[in-house]
Amino acid sequence: MGSAYFYLEFLVAWISLLKEAGYRNPTIFALEYSLVPDAAYPTQVEQTMAGYKYVCSITKDASRVCVGGDSAGATLILSLLLRLAQRNNEKLRPGYAALISPWTTLLSSKNRDTASDYLNANSLSLYGLQYASSAANLEDPLVSPGTCKDTEWWAKACPIAGFCILFGSEEVLGPETRDLIVLLRRSGCGVSVREEPGAIHAWPVATLFLSDTQMERQRGLRDLTKAIKQAIHI
Fold first, then answer.
1. Nearest to residue 154, comparing CAs of 192, 190, 102, 101?
2. Which phi and psi (to 5°) does residue 167 adopt?
3. What does each C-alpha distance from 151 to 29, 63, 136, 147, 155 come to in angstroms?
4. Which residues, in sequence order, are CB contacts of 21 under 8 Å at separation 6+?
5. Half-sphere exposure of 33 (CA within 13 A, CB side)
6. DSSP letter at 36?
7. What burial letters (b/e) apply to 78-88, b meaning 16+ CB within 10 Å?
8. Closest listed residue to residue 203, CA positions, set 226, 189, 224
């Protein structure tokens, strides 16, 4: 949504749930990356790489790190994983990846407006082109990860314990997200999926702000926390 500060309540609640799950000192590093039109590719991917390398310099063990993001943030995580694999940087291979409503393919004919989702397919196309900075870049997997159909590349890019992907059944981005899940599994990656019936884009974030009860507000976060606990042992 433009700033890490927007997610502050979400992140604080997540820290509490991770402690409740048994992690003694969980830490979340939230990257404040540049936005279009002020900056375009490759700036954001380079910032993501720099942030990830900083985290690994602190943990000294990439297998203890879970990378994650929602929407365009999840796009950057997928780009990060593909770039690490392209550079054969096995030492920086993360332990796990938790993605919420990933924007996998920046320009896709499969994106269709739905009755309930707040995203708009035409606007996504405009923003995607602004980020890519040129139409030619839209076919570059490091810009638009969903265009990568190379199962060997995805196998190398896969985090050690695989992926957790949460998205809503009513999302504009739903068809491309399902395609990515099939591709990752075909590449040999472990993928845990929660497709929430009737839900919209980034529903775990939206429910935190819109739901009435604490249990309902934290439903998506609890799913993510459970998946992380199973992937990265305490």
1. 190
2. -155, 170
3. 30, 22, 22, 12, 6
4. 225, 226, 228, 229, 234
5. 28
6. T
7. bbbbbbbbeee
8. 224
Question: What is the tens place of the pLDDT at every residue in 70-121?
Answer: 999 999 999 999 999 999 999 999 999 999 999 999 999 999 999 999 999 9
pLDDT tens digits, one per residue of 3-41: 888 999 999 999 999 999 999 999 999 999 999 999 999
Q: What does the alpha-carbon distance between residue 132 and residue 140 come to, in Å, rounded to a whole number?
A: 9
What is the C-alpha to C-alpha distance for residues 113 and 115, in angstroms, rounded to an integer?
Answer: 7
Three-state secondary structure call for residue 221: helix
Cβ distance 55 to 30 under 8 Å? no
Tell me how crowded residue 163 is: count the other CB atoms within 10 A of its CB.
27
**Could you tell me the strand order of the sheet in which 163-168 lies?**
66-70, 96-100, 163-168, 191-196
CB 101 within 8 A of CB 166: yes
Read off the tokens for 29. Answer: 């590093």
Residue 79 has φ and ψ, to the nearest 5°, of -65, -40
Query: Tell me, what DSSP letter sits at residue 67?
Result: E
**The pair of three-digit structure tokens given for residue 181, joined into one six-digit string:** 């899940």
**What's the rounded Cα separation, in Å, for the pair 177 and 103?**
8
